[in-house]
Amino acid sequence: MQLPLNQSFGQCVRVLRQARGLTQVEFSEKCGFYQTYLSRIENGQANPTLNAMEVIAVGLGLTVFELFERVREQAQNKTR
Fold first, then answer.
1. Domain range holding 59?
2. Is residue 80 part of a domain?
3. pTM across the whole model
4. Please, what sign has the CA dihedral across residues 40, 42, 44, 50?
5. Does any domain span residue 13?
6. Which of left, alpha, beta for 21 (phi over 0: left; psi -120 to 50: alpha)?
7. Is residue 38 part of a domain?
8. Which segments of 1-80 does DSSP mark as H helices, in order?
9. Going by C-beta distance under 8 Å and a sequence separation of 6 or more, which residues neighbour residue 58?
10. How far apart are CA 13 and CA 61, in angstroms?
11. How far is CA 23 from CA 4, 15, 17, 26, in A?
12. Within-domain flag for 62
């Protein structure tokens, strides 16, 4: 069963952030967000705007399109 998009997106952001060796605090400061907001995104409890998604993507060194491709790939891997 596939997760809702906000949960898939949040899990992917967490995995990518951790792969880059960043804590939530470090990454939230890099993006200009409150750490609590980033936590809510990663836990699928917040629906970030398109602008926030772009900021997150750039903070991860990706484009929005690349980030969503990673979300799609991760979601497909979980349903297999």
1. 5-75
2. no
3. 0.93
4. positive
5. yes
6. left
7. yes
8. 5-19, 24-31, 35-42, 50-59, 64-79
9. none
10. 12
11. 24, 11, 7, 5
12. yes
**CA–CA dist 7, 42 (Å, integer):** 7
> pLDDT (tens digit, 9 = 90+) per residue, 29-72?
999 999 999 999 999 999 999 999 999 999 999 999 999 999 99
> How many domains would you assign to the chain?
1
Quick check: 35 and 24 in contact, CB under 8 A?
A: yes
Q: What is the CATH number of the domain that holds 14?
A: 1.10.260.40
Please give the residue that has the higher pLDDT: either 7 or 75.
7
CB atoms within 10 A of CB 17: 22
